[in-house]
Amino acid sequence: MDGTFNENDLSRIVEADRAHIWHHLIQHKPFETNDPRIIVEGKGMRVWDQKGKEHLDAVSGGVWTVNVGYGRESICKAVYDQLMKLCYFAQSAGSIPGSIFAKKLISKMPGMSRVYYTNSGSEANEKAFKMVRQIAHKRYGGRKTKILYRDRDYHGSTLAAMSAGGQDERNMQYGPFAPDFVRVPHCMEYRKHELDGAPDANFGEWAADQIEAVILREGPDTVGALCLEPVTAGGGVIEAPEGYWQRVQEICTKYDILLHIDEVVCGVGRTGTEWFGYQHYGIRPDFVTMAKGVASGYAAIACMVTTEEVFAMFKDDADDPMNYFRDISTFGGCTAGPAAAIENLRIIENENLLANCTGMGARLDANLRALMDKHKVIGDVRGKGLFQGAELVLDRDSKEPVPEKQAQAVVADCMAQGVIIGVTNRSVPGRNNTLCFSPALIASPDDIDQITDAVDGALGRVFG
């Protein structure tokens, strides 16, 4: 027996999975007695498992990725046609889809100029980190190597990306980490009482001023970049308060610090109205990284986008053999990614999905706030576009979080109802209590209502 079997033999598929697959983010001990879940098919907003059960996917593939929904034949055809013509060539040379997508992408990002292709969000962030370090050596005598990152933000799963990770449970047992990554406080207004000295008024400006305090403590001549999510994702779906981003921009300009915005989750329409989260706030980043929604999961692609000013630093002395970005990403040369991304952008534009994201995001927000009126366990609702969170607390006055197991029980109850939602988990100690919603940008009013109806029933059963 060579171990081969038909894809329709689902019992053997399950056994092969149990015996050979190491799943992401899951403890495998339960699989000794229970079957792992196999997702067999997806269409639009819905997926089916190996038992034939249908689920409405309210998290776009589990990790905020399938933005235009499942079963997009035109994307699949674009990828097929491109792979038949040219599947791959190292990114030291160009490709037709790479050039076309870069031009289209930059047209959505005024002030940005250059696209560096890679294959994951973690890797895209590492490219920016490496550029910051190389600039420090080229321009500042090796001094401005420190990279600031924010408490509760997440930038990837490699060791360098984890060094910039503000979620301590994700980092636990993986140290020691790379040096010269320095944390700044979070900007979560709902939990400002946990920050020493936080004021009742003008909290956004105060939270940004805490970044300046860290810069002054470390020494402005040692800090090269500040890396932030426009809306904190896995750390609790946190949008910065009014006044925060304007002050952040002022601080970066004042101390000659490069601003790196991690759009791996928020990018390409997730927040509605604008193509990227940072564009809601009028800031001017030096680096923008993106991945998940770039091709909606139809092919692996990530981008590190930067300005012409940053790009010029790596070619200003052509006689110096070390004066270029000496880096490669093998699968940054795969042409399937940009081919899929071109068609993904066309779908978003032609189907007016930014507007749909805005409208359906408003409906999701209103539905969640109605549930907040009904269920005292919801302490806060927040987010932007089709990227929303509902924080669960035992008491609204003290804001004591519900135990993680209870938040997980809500997710499990929704799953039993045929609706897949997310939750912060094993990320921030004692703060894994936010339900997360990121349905595809194609969501309809009925989809949104089905999601929140499932949450309503789950909250009633879990909390009484």
TrEMBL record:
UniProt lineage: Bacteria, Pseudomonadati, Pseudomonadota, Alphaproteobacteria, Rhodobacterales
Cofactors demanded by this protein: pyridoxal 5'-phosphate
Family, similarity comment: Belongs to the class-III pyridoxal-phosphate-dependent aminotransferase family.
Example of a GO MF term: transaminase activity
Matching InterPro entries: Aminotrans_3, Aminotrans_3_PPA_site, PyrdxlP-dep_Trfase, PyrdxlP-dep_Trfase_major, PyrdxlP-dep_Trfase_small
Domain of life: Bacteria
Keywords: Aminotransferase, Pyridoxal phosphate, Pyruvate, Transferase
Protein name: Taurine-pyruvate aminotransferase
